[in-house]
Amino acid sequence: MNARRWWLSGPAALVLLAGCGFHLQGVSHLPPAFATTALVAADRYTDFNRALGDALRVSGTTVVTDALHAGATVDVLGDENGQRVLSVSANNTPTEYEVYYTIRYRVRVGDREVLPAQVLTLTREYSFDTAAVLAKEHEQELIRGALARELAALVMRRLTALPQ
Asked: Which of 16, 86, 104, 109 is the most buried (most CB within 10 A)?
């Protein structure tokens, strides 16, 4: 009886998941103009540029640096990250920080601007301990990288929503 229940529960779970609209995250399907995309930025070596370039490549896009040889261009107009103090102790030492990552970008297909300048900002908070300074610096770097990947994913979602 248990074996029969087990065999019936698997397909039932799949039917329920399919019925609610769930699907596994996969590769983004970009419009045909993005087959060759130029990624133009003042600094090509930031966390965000690397993450966006990787996301474009995974989606099957050929990423180039020269806009003349591309069907579409993603202009990264600004790429800024840092941290702010959120709270301090009675001794006036920071106990909590907020890491932020802000990008400004626009998207062009040929000479036509299909997505005007957009600003995206993501933030995360983390606690700080003066006894573990190196560990907390590493945590901040990990958070900054995660924010860059999340911003790249947001940009990719906006690119896939553009009309064909």
From this structure: 109
Please report the domains of the chain, with CATH numbers, ordered by start residue: 29-160 (3.30.160.150)
Q: Record the pTM.
A: 0.80
Report pLDDT digits (tens) over 24-71: 555 668 899 999 999 999 999 999 999 999 999 999 999 998 888 899
**44 contacts 71 by C-beta, under 8 angstroms:** no
| Total Cβ atoms within 10 A of residue 135 | 10
